[in-house]
């Protein structure tokens, strides 16, 4: 039920349900139980998504405190709540306060138990695209390092592009839409399917 509220951005309904769950959990399990900590963190996240950061931050910190006491400060399962606190601090225009939480989250993601869990945002890479007919000087400037030399290689050429905006489901995309985009990319590149050596299936 909670997942449905969160997926549909029904934050008021999520807050109401999580608040009841927090009260019931504290009464039945005790206020310091790790499940209560997880619910408290989720409640803080719901408030943050609704834009009520003043209410969200104390709940997120309380959830972190309870979870830390149960699993220890270096458990990778803390990453989501650390990220939530960092995001809430950043959205409250306190980047200095956000930084320690981001750093802890990043350290846990890179720790002995490897988890690709800490996500700072949706954009994680930057590619410099250039016209192959552009001047070599302009291309060199794009990759110029502090020593005055080209410090980055040209990694790939985009041979073709295809796109289909079929408004299919985000988690069950249309097979026809995806194949139409791939056929368009092959046609644009003037390539046959058997010439493709690698397919990355991540959207």
Write the layout of secondary structure elements.
Layout: H1 2-7, H2 11-29, H3 34-50, H4 53-71, H5 79-91, H6 95-109, H7 136-142, H8 175-189
Helix pairs in contact: 2-3, 3-4, 4-5, 5-6
Which residue ranges are poorly predicted, with pLDDT under 50 across at least 5 consecutive positions?
Answer: 112-122, 145-151
Strand content: under 5%
Element pattern in H and E? HHHHHHHH
Strand elements, count? 0
Largest sheet: none
Q: What's the tally of helices? A: 8
Structural class: mainly alpha
* Rg: 23 Å
Mean pLDDT: 78
Give a short overview.
By secondary structure, the chain is mainly alpha-helical. It has helices at residues 2-7, 11-29, 34-50, 53-71, 79-91, 95-109, 136-142, 175-189.
Structure description:
- Residues 112-122 and 145-151 have low confidence and may be disordered.
- The chain is mainly α and 203 residues long.
- The protein has eight helices and no strands.
- Helix 3 runs antiparallel to helix 4 and helix 5 (79-91) packs antiparallel against helix 6.
- It is 55% helix and 0% strand.
Which structural traits does this protein have?
203 residues, 8 helices
């Amino acid at each position: 039920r909670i997942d449905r509220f969160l997926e549909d951005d029904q934050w008021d309904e999520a807050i109401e349900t999580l608040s009841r769950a927090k009260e019931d959990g504290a009464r039945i399990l005790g206020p310091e139980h790790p499940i209560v900590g997880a619910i408290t963190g989720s409640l803080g996240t719901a408030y943050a998504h609704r834009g009520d950061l003043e209410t969200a931050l104390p709940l997120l910190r309380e959830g972190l405190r309870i979870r830390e006491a149960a699993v220890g400060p270096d458990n990778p399962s803390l990453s989501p709540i650390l990220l939530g606190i960092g995001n809430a601090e950043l959205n409250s225009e306190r980047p200095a306060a956000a930084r320690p939480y981001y750093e802890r989250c990043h350290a846990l993601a890179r720790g002995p138990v490897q988890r690709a869990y800490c996500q700072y945002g949706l954009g994680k890479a930057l590619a410099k695209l250039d016209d192959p007919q552009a001047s070599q000087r302009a291309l060199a400037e794009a990759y110029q390092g502090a020593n005055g030399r080209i410090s980055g290689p040209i990694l790939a050429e985009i041979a073709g592009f295809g796109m289909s905006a079929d408004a299919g489901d985000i988690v069950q995309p249309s097979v026809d839409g995806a194949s139409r985009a791939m056929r368009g990319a092959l046609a644009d590149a003037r390539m046959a399917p058997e010439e493709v050596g690698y397919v990355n299936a991540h959207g």
